[in-house]
């Protein structure tokens, strides 16, 4: 048997943590192939077939599902003897229906695969029955069977995912915890509210190995890294003491819960070592109520003041298309976020992800979204389709003229003149609309 894990990343700089964790969770030989969605179908097929697999295991997300479907259908016709399995969030929540629609899929592995991957490989090798593989959805004659998923996996002993490999000019991703204590209805993490942590000593050991890969950017995928202040301080102190020169560590944090002692320690770091992403999404209380979220801008402002922003890059997120958020509400929210002084304001567009509570309630909230990945909002009952497109121009303008350092003087001048930031950037967005050619 020659199984091959296949990852299709958004671009070369990204790496796929999931397939590395699966590879390292078994002692059986497993191949790993990383490509990008920007490569042609023919090139990807040649790379896959060069490995001579008899089983292919795809890692599926909203950004690579169309390419996986294309490859899967082709291989099913060209080389039907190759078995093809899929795992990942894009196929986890409607697995039976997906397999009914896609004859090329031989099975789907759901849940935390590190806990069942070795059993899965034993099944593929004919050493175990399909029923023994937790989370496996498989065909048996004309019927599709779905095995129950195991409970939450302990983080103890879980591999880092990165060992001896060259990650120069590439990003390393890392999990120091799984699960999320919050219940934002648009996010898949809300479906896993059992929070589990790695030990700090294990994190240090993993990071020392990752430091040797040559990467300059490590992104923690934890949803709220600093939930436990004492643990956070121990990890932050480790990076200050041991991270190589020129490295950047990215955390996602809820700044409303930032404590002064954590902020004080972060400020001891050399400039550029830490980068913080803080999700705001909306400042409209009614919108936040609908998505099971709360935002306290005053607390966020106090946190931003505590952190030395000459040393620490902070960017905040807003989402277009949330239920009940019209154009005026979104732009008023933007104007309230600008005074926080974040390095960047990242404007995203609501994605109705499979498995999320908001997707299940989309009709109730009158949200119309694209049927194809990434399932992005098209319109709502309070935001017309044309307004969504205009706000895409607005997001482009903000990315190019607010987020970039070369236009710092423009931001200062807007403030000095007392101009409304949203009106200024929206005027540019409308000009772009008129000159879209």
Number of strands: 17
N-to-C terminal Cα separation, in Å?
Answer: 53 Å
Portion in helices: 25-40%
Question: Would you give the CATH topology of the largest domain?
Answer: pyruvate-formate lyase- activating enzyme
Count of domain modules: 2
Q: Helix segment count?
A: 16
What is the CATH level 1 assignment of the largest domain? Alpha Beta
- Per CATH, which architecture of the largest domain? Alpha-Beta Horseshoe
Low-confidence stretches: none
Fraction of residues in β-strands: 15-25%
Please identify the structural class as seen in this structure: alpha/beta
Sheet with most strands: 7 strands, mixed
Report the average pLDDT across residues.
95
- Full CATH superfamily name of the largest domain: tm_1862 like domain
Widest sheet, order of strands? 2-1-3-4-5-6-7
Shape: globular
| Overall radius of gyration | 23 Å
């Amino acid at each position: 048997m020659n199984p091959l894990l296949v990852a299709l990343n958004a671009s070369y700089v990204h790496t796929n943590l999931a397939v590395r964790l699966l590879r390292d969770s078994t002692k059986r030989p497993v191949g790993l192939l990383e490509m990008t969605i920007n490569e042609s179908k023919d090139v990807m097929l040649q790379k896959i077939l060069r490995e001579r697999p008899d089983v292919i295991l795809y890692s599926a997300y909203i950004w690579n599902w169309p390419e996986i479907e294309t490859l899967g259908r082709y291989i099913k016709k060209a080389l039907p003897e190759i078995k093809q399995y899929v795992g990942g969030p894009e196929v986890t929540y409607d697995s039976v229906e997906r397999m009914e629609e896609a004859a090329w899929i031989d099975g789907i592995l759901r849940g935390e695969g590190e806990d069942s991957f070795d059993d899965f490989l034993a099944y593929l090798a004919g050493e175990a029955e399909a029923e023994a593989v937790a989370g496996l959805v498989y065909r048996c004659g004309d019927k599709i069977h779905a095995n129950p998923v195991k409970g939450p996996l302990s983080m103890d002993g879980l591999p880092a995912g990165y060992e001896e490999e060259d990650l120069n000019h590439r990003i390393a991703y890392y999990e120091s915890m799984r699960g999320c204590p919050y219940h934002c209805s648009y996010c898949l993490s809300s479906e896993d509210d059992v929070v589990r942590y790695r030990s700090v000593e294990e994190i240090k050991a993993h990071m020392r190995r990752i430091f040797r890969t040559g990467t300059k950017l490590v992104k923690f995928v934890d949803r709220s890294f600093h939930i436990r202040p004492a643990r956070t301080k121990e990890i932050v102190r480790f990076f200050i003491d041991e991270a190589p020169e020129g490295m950047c560590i990215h955390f996602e944090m809820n700044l409303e819960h930032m404590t002064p002692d954590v902020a004080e320690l972060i400020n001891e770091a050399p400039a550029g070592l830490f980068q913080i992403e803080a999700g705001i999404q909306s400042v409209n209380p009614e919108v936040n109520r609908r998505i099971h979220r709360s935002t306290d801008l005053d607390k966020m402002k106090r946190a931003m003041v505590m952190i030395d922003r000459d040393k620490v890059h902070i960017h905040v997120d807003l989402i277009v298309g949330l239920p009940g958020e019209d154009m005026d509400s979104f732009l008023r929210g933007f104007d309230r976020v600008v005074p926080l002084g974040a390095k960047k304001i990242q404007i995203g567009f609501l994605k109705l992800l499979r498995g999320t509570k908001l997707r299940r309630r989309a009709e109730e909230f009158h949200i119309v979204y694209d049927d194809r990945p990434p399932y992005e909002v098209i319109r709502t009952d309070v935001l017309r389709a044309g307004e969504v497109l205009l706000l895409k121009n607005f997001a482009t303008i903000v990315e190019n003229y607010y987020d970039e350092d070369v236009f710092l003087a423009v931001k200062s001048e807007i403030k000095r003149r007392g101009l409304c930031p949203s009106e200024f950037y929206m005027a540019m967005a409308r000009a772009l609309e008129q000159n879209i050619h």
